[in-house]
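Practice problem: predict the structure.
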Amino acid sequence: MAKKKETKQEPIEKQLWKAADKLRKNIDAAEYKHIVLGLIFLKYISDSFEELYAKLKAGEGDYAGADPEDRDEYRAENVFFVPPSARWSYLQGRAKLPEIGKDIDNSMDAIERDNPSLKGVLPKAFAKENLDPTSLGQLIDLISNIALGDEVSRSQDLLGKVYEYFLGEFALAEGKKGGQFYTPESIVKLLVEMLQPYKGRVFDPCCGSGGMFVQSEKFILAHQGKINDISIYGQESNQTTWRLAKMNLAIRGIDSSQVKWNNEGSFLNDEHKDLKADYIIANPPFNDSDWGGELLQKDARWQFGVPPNSNANFGWVQHMIFHLTKTGRAGIVLGNSSLSAVSTGEGDLRKNILEEGLVSCIVAMPKNLFYNTSIPACLWFLNRSKKHKEDILFIDARDLGSSLSTTNKILTNSDINLITSEYKKWDENPMNYEGTAGFSKSVNIELIRENNYNLSPNRYIDLIKIDRDQTPFNTYTTSLLSQISEEIELRDKLSIQAKNVFSELGYQNLAKLHIGSLNSDTLFKIEQLLFKKWFIDFIIPSFKGFNNSTLVHTKNIFDFGEVPKEWGVVSLSKVAKIVDCLHTTKPQETPINTGNLLLQVFNISDNGLLDFTKEYFIDNSDYENWIKNIEVTTGDCIITNTGRIGAIAQIPRESSFAIGRNMTAVRPRPELLTPTYLINYLLSPYMKIQTYRLTDIGTILDSLNVKGIRQIQILTPPIEVQNKYEEMARPIREIIELNNEERTFDITM
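Answer:
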């Protein structure tokens, strides 16, 4: 017998969007959402009603003797009573009739009469002349196939998810007018879990479809609390969205009497002027430039300074601080510019709020969490009664999240638990909190002041911990000998220079090796080990002009720990010439090898090397134009800016190239910095920390721009130490480069 082919059901969001599209030929995007969302809600409450109706009619157990037409039975279960003429089964039976639009309007009126909390909420525009009855009937048939109000659908906040998907589609259809973002459930859950609103007043001044309130209810029920222990307050400026919020809350039995609407919004017409809330949970519009700030220059809410007319971020922050009780707490979703912007007074506003000791935690979030934008965001957590006012927890969650598709991510429950548990550990005992490398750190306001009140978490979180040990160098080289004994025969050429320096410095095990016969992986291990012993562990042999007894006295420097007292730590721009590409339009590639190579990001390989598997050649005139700023040559280094942030390569001997976009050239000043020290520093843990620290968390892409590269902090040993290191390590680097040339490309030397 042939196996019956299974039909895969489309996701409900797509089914419902098909429903909306059925009407699109007659009504524009801004108007038809009233129709579709109204019908979805009607189907929702009808499904819920029918489910309870069936139980009452069966009359079993707790429902024995119940009357399925008694409205009180439904109120007792927080289910809307739907009169016979408004039930979905009745409307579906009349879907093909020309008067179906009028029937639905009458149904909405009847539901509002029997359910006072819905008065003025439901749409009644189904009998309009521009709405074709045939299309409306088809829409009813399509929605009829979808369960919305049964127990499972209600538990999944299905209406909110449908609304989120619709906002994405409406935003595309309506352009900027559609740019109201429903906050994804995982973000709302994180906000609520961090704040833990067990009891008191919960406020959202830009409440959208009410998701913050719904999640607060779920939190309380999950922790065996009482839903009546909280009261909710909200405001929304979009009437359609406000209606959806009222419906969303009403179907859950949550009192929405204090969820207000006016079209002026929370800034210009605050519906809760006297409210002091225990918890504020909000996702205001990102970087809103049309918020009426010019009309509010002397507003009492601006305790920390007047927000710029061009950006409402710190207007929202201050609005929420104003509405907090003396022990109140807030969780706010903001655009990443709020962390570091200094223009139009935002830097001063951030400074004033920080100095007041109100900020308890900053969380940098992953990209692609919103359905209709890839813009990454951050979370601000405020606490008016913070015990340790000078300490702030920073969490870098940018690498968390699980992909739903190529364009969407979601925070998993384990992600949420990881963030909340870290916050709870810090909140309980900030003074003894150690943090997690690459993820979190507690920072004192003093360090934040030194960083001009920049709140980007990567400025402060320790990417890795530099490990120093005092194991003698020869202990390491003894173990290396056993690993490389089979490789010594691969090449015959020996670097006499390296051998002589090794002997001079007492590295007898290395002096025995034929350095020129080793493969690149082994040479790189030796190179890195030498750098570590000299410049991380500070175990340097004495030599003519240098006495290692000077290394005893140390000083402590942020990100470097204890370093020799006589050594410097300066910005890279002090010891090297930093030059950006500065070009915007990529020149045309030539089909032949012109000898004019334009380096691309894909040419940057591992271990500071270049990879010429692919080559991008340009003609003479373009090449001359691209090297006006700089032509990189032997000893220069390249650092990539975006995409592969902080990838490093050094230009090998007897070579010169033009550099492409998203690259910055670093040319060491010979009297201050030697080439081999530079490349090994850029490949060291020190540089990993600096790259992490100085990367700009962007709204679209993260970047390490030329300004950040100039600010890279570099440990600068005395030049005589660098010169001796150059004598010892340069032959190793050149043999690595030779091996790389022979392995990856033919080059005329």
